[in-house]
């Protein structure tokens, strides 16, 4: 998968995606072919959102990285988010340079975290959907992109985000049927319970709990428990 080829075919490719998981696989392949390590497609947070876990739509960021990021409140006063909320221009980033003005505690924490996972450089591409909702795509790894690469990736990001928005809208309009057990497991997962804890509370085997949660993930077109919880909250399937 080469960038030039993807740029030339992305309109047809994006239109053919039918699930979030198909887009996840595409983005994972594109990221790898670019010699990068991670991608994130997110909605830009409002003032009451303080966790990256609540903004991401799809990502291959390591789960432990997202948890650490949120535990240390690194979304608050993020210079990356601040820049995207004030401008629609794509930009390369270097984790050390862009966090230069953060308080020393958070500065060193962010730099160490992103370098630990090979995400010290990369780029962000602000995008929006037909309803005016704002989001962004990022690709992170060991390098920055050229101006030509940035232009092509911005076009790809725009079409990918638009298709994701269409799929999300279809999910909201199409009722998804869940069993009582699936909803119970989903609610308890949203409440922070682990599989073995849910099993004890519902008097089920841990294997049965995992099957129920896997079914929920598949029905929602997600790739992880965290994404399923975020999607279910966004679609009002469960409430916080």
Automatic annotation (TrEMBL):
Keywords: DNA-binding, Transcription, Transcription regulation
Coiled coil region boundaries: none
HTH luxR-type domain span: 171-236
UniProt-recorded name of the protein: LuxR family transcriptional regulator
InterPro entries: Sig_transdc_resp-reg_C-effctor, TF_LuxR_autoind-bd_dom, TF_LuxR_autoind-bd_dom_sf, Tscrpt_reg_LuxR_C, WH-like_DNA-bd_sf
The organism's place on the tree of life at top rank: Bacteria
Gene3D superfamilies: Transcription factor LuxR-like, autoinducer-binding domain, Winged helix-like DNA-binding domain superfamily/Winged helix DNA-binding domain
Gene Ontology terms: biological process: regulation of DNA-templated transcription
Upper classification of the organism: Bacteria, Pseudomonadati, Pseudomonadota, Alphaproteobacteria, Hyphomicrobiales
A GO MF label: DNA binding
SUPFAM superfamilies to which the protein is assigned, alphabetical: C-terminal effector domain of the bipartite response regulators, Pheromone-binding domain of LuxR-like quorum-sensing transcription factors
């Amino acid at each position: 998968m080469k960038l030039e080829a993807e740029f030339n075919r992305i309109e047809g490719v994006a239109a053919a995606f039918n699930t979030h998981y198909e887009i996840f696989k595409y983005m994972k392949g594109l990221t790898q072919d670019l010699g990068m390590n991670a991608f994130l497609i997110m909605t830009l947070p409002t003032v009451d959102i303080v966790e990256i876990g609540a903004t991401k739509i799809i990502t291959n960021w390591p789960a432990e990285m997202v948890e650490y990021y949120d535990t240390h409140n690194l979304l608050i006063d993020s210079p990356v988010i601040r820049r995207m909320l004030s401008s629609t221009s794509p930009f390369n980033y270097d984790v050390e340079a862009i966090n230069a003005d953060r308080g020393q505690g958070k500065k060193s924490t962010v730099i160490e975290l992103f370098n630990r996972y090979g995400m010290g450089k990369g780029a962000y591409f602000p995008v929006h959907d037909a309803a005016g909702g704002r989001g962004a795509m990022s690709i992170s790894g060991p390098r920055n992109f050229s101006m030509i690469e940035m232009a092509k990736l911005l076009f790809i990001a725009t079409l990918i985000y638009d298709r994701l928005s269409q799929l999300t809208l279809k999910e909201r309009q199409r009722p998804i049927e869940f069993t009582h057990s699936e909803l119970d497991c989903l609610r308890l997962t949203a409440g922070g319970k682990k599989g073995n804890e849910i099993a004890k509370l519902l008097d089920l085997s841990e294997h049965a709990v995992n099957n129920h949660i896997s079914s929920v993930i598949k029905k929602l077109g997600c790739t992880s428990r965290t994404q399923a919880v975020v999607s279910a909250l966004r679609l009002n399937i469960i409430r916080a």
